[in-house]
Amino acid sequence: MNIMSFFGKRSDSASVAKNRLKILLAHERGGNSNTDAKLISSLREDILAVVAKHINVDPDCVRLEMDRSGDTTTLGIDIELPDGEAK
Amino acid sequence: MNIMSFFGKRSDSASVAKNRLKILLAHERGGNSNTDAKLISSLREDILAVVAKHINVDPDCVRLEMDRSGDTTTLGIDIELPDGEAK
User: Fold this and answer.
1) Coiled-coil intervals in this record (chains A, B) (predicted)?
2) Looking at the whole model, is its pTM more than 0.80?
3) Which of B22, B39, B55 sits opposite A26 (nearest CB)?
4) DSSP labels, A6-72
5) What's the burial of A41, exposed, middle or buried (CB within 10 Å: 0-12/13-18/19+)?
6) With a cut of 0.85, is the ipTM above it?
7) Contact B39/A55 with Cβ under 8 angstroms?
């Protein structure tokens, strides 16, 4: 499984950078894409807070990318970790 | 971006099922893969708790898949959502 494909647009930088955490949420349903976007957005902050509990995260090193296509809302969170990130 | 590729082994079932939330964590580093696995495992429980705050999740409808290859530890969380899952 090629994890670089998760963030296709950032494959080049991802292949160069070391020590990253990538989180991807994908919500598939036949429902209202706005509702999906709200759900994903509400999960985003809480998940970032969870990550910050475990890892020293520099907010400047967090990239977010949301994509809505068809029945799927996708949120990508790409975190560049400092050395000794584990708390 | 084809989200089915995130969970290659479950592409068939994922393409049939509706109303799913997929969460994927990928940790890349040149470090100790055991340390990576511990970090991912510790994030898993907290992220599942966060999801449960926003969505009515049936534990029987949660699938976890952890993969360690090279310098990357990957955790896939695949949640089949009930109707009216939003809290």
Assistant:
1) none
2) no
3) B22
4) GGGGGHHHHHH--SEEEEEEEEE-SS-HHHHHHHHHHHHHHHHHHHHHHB---GGGEEEEEEEETTE
5) middle
6) no
7) yes
